[in-house]
Amino acid sequence: MSGIEGRTAIVTGAGAGIGREIALRLAGAGAKVAACDVVEEGAQECAAAITAAGGEARAYANDVSDAAAVAELCARAAGELGGIHILINNAGITRDALLLRMSEQDWDAVLAVNLKGAFNFVKACARPMMKERWGRVVNIASVVGQMGNAGQANYAAAKAGMIGLTKSAARELAPRGITVNAVAPGFIETAMTRKLDEQARSAYARAIPLGRFGTPGDVADACLFLCSAAAAYITGQVIRVDGGMLM
Ligand SMILES: NC(=O)c1ccc[n+]([C@@H]2O[C@H](COP(=O)([O-])OP(=O)(O)OC[C@H]3O[C@@H](n4cnc5c(N)ncnc54)[C@H](O)[C@@H]3O)[C@@H](O)[C@H]2O)c1
């Protein structure tokens, strides 16, 4: 896809699921990829898969919620891979519980990883992107951030917050040639949704007009488009990849 070749891309949560697929496809389109994950083996496996396929990648072990560590990682990656042009804020966790049973720890953990983590990376990558006068940020939100979900007050709040972060950063960074968009997946086949029991899965599938859960590739395709030259005039948007679940 044009506009991606030769760029350096940071992908958080690249060790599994959607992040891994985005990292592989960005590398396939010619980007040099910094595969970051809190699980070091995950990051290494992703970078190894990219290298085995003939691409260029390095693995970085990192907790997105640690601001100082994120700043250090971004400086290292910029030095080792040559600047930073693309940022995919994908790392995310769930700690589901109904409101009355949701602990303060579960609230804080989900906000720290899903929302503060994205802020940490946007802040650390903004300066190198400004230097290039070119940048693409894609935040992986969720339809739940737009529609809410019983049992996910922490997760929905974090994902709604990510959408506010996306629009604010888009306005601030547009004059520097940097676009900032969000992709909001519905139900995607990954470890995160494999936790659901069969009854919940078929109830959710019935609520999806296209009649199936999405694949990590469905989400990665939207991300690649937003990073490509074809999306140069799109910023501050939320693109839903949800089989029509929310319209
Ligand atoms: N799977 C879905 O149905 C779905 C739907 C909507 C949105 N999303 C979002 O997509 C993103 C990826 O989800 P997934 O389904 O691939 O999940 P996953 O659990 O399969 O993968 C998440 C990855 O993030 C990493 N990670 C977790 N905490 C981290 C931290 N503190 N620092 C760095 N890395 C960390 C994990 O180690 C893992 O490799 C998440 O932001 C998730 O909220 C997923």
From TrEMBL:
NADP(+) binds at N90, Y155, A156, A157, A158, K159, I188. Residues 7-186 form the Ketoreductase domain. Pathway: Lipid metabolism; fatty acid biosynthesis. It holds the Pfam family adh_short_C2. CDD domains: BKR_SDR_c (cd05333). Catalyzes the NADPH-dependent reduction of beta-ketoacyl-ACP substrates to beta-hydroxyacyl-ACP products, the first reductive step in the elongation cycle of fatty acid biosynthesis. This is 3-oxoacyl-[acyl-carrier-protein] reductase. It comes from candidate division WOR-3 bacterium. The gene is fabG.
